[in-house]
Amino acid sequence: MKRVLITGATSGIGFELTKTLCSKGHMVVATGRNSDKLAELCKLTGCYTIQADLSDSQQPLELFTEAVEKLGGLDVLINNAGMNSRKCGIDEFTVEEFDHQYAVNLRAPALLSREALKVMKLAKSGQIINVLSTVAKRSNETMSVYTAMKQGLAGFSAILMKEAQPHGIKVTSLFPGGTDTNFREVDRPQYMHPKSVAETIALLLELPQDVVMHEMVFRPPVEIE
Ligand SMILES: NC(=O)c1ccc[n+]([C@@H]2O[C@H](COP(=O)([O-])OP(=O)(O)OC[C@H]3O[C@@H](n4cnc5c(N)ncnc54)[C@H](OP(=O)(O)O)[C@@H]3O)[C@@H](O)[C@H]2O)c1
């Protein structure tokens, strides 16, 4: 049994991941803004829930403290929450959109990783999984701000790995391809089902002790890079 904190658990990949990890006997704190979805998840799985808005600079820190209290420690942090305001050209994005994406997609996971590192260093063990995207390996027109934040988090995550691993802490930068979730306004049935992505992420918690997965890139069969 591992004590796990998952952000972005009210929808898509995080929702399915919470169900998957709870069904495997892990103790999970699930977070998001949508209180109805958090209540549904709690009823379905028995997980703990914390409502928090990651676009705020203080709420990630408050939720982290509360999560560690509820769990009695922390073995795994999964920085899964993320969003893209919209697709648009570089001559169109607004300062508000940029700042919001920076706060949710880069600052919040960085702050949560910082706090987790402090707790896990004391325990001399732990695991941090940062959910990036295959966009971080590409240069898609109309996705500039989202890509910049995911590439920023990829750089942060790679350095986190180097600083954490000597302390017995495993860090994985996860690059999923297209997944059929509420992330987009339109359905994409040809993309990966969020349950399949959740089951793939859950494998990382079952790696042998002497294996660290630094990067994990996976896509639906319709995507060939
Ligand atoms: N779908 C894809 O094709 C795809 C591909 C590669 C990577 N990803 C990444 O995978 C992760 C999960 O995405 P998904 O596809 O499952 O999307 P989703 O269904 O839209 O879920 C996004 C989650 O992030 C949370 N979130 C968004 N803004 C937040 C905020 N301000 N404060 C707190 N939580 C917030 C949402 O919760 P609330 O609304 O309740 O706050 C929700 O639980 C994201 O990091 C995304 O970038 C997705």
Bound molecules: NADP nicotinamide-adenine-dinucleotide phosphate
Annotated CATH architecture? 3-Layer(aba) Sandwich
Strand order of the largest sheet: 3-2-1-4-5-6-7
Which CATH C-level class is it? Alpha Beta
**Distance N terminus to C terminus?**
37 Å
Shape: globular
Helix fraction, binned, reads 40-55%
Low-confidence stretches: none
Q: Order of helices and strands, N to C?
A: EHEHEHEHEHEHE
Number of domains: 1
Summarize the biggest pleated sheet: 7 strands, parallel
Structural class assignment: alpha/beta
Pfam families: adh_short
Family: Belongs to the short-chain dehydrogenases/reductases (SDR) family.
Organism: Photobacterium lutimaris
Protein name: NAD(P)-dependent oxidoreductase
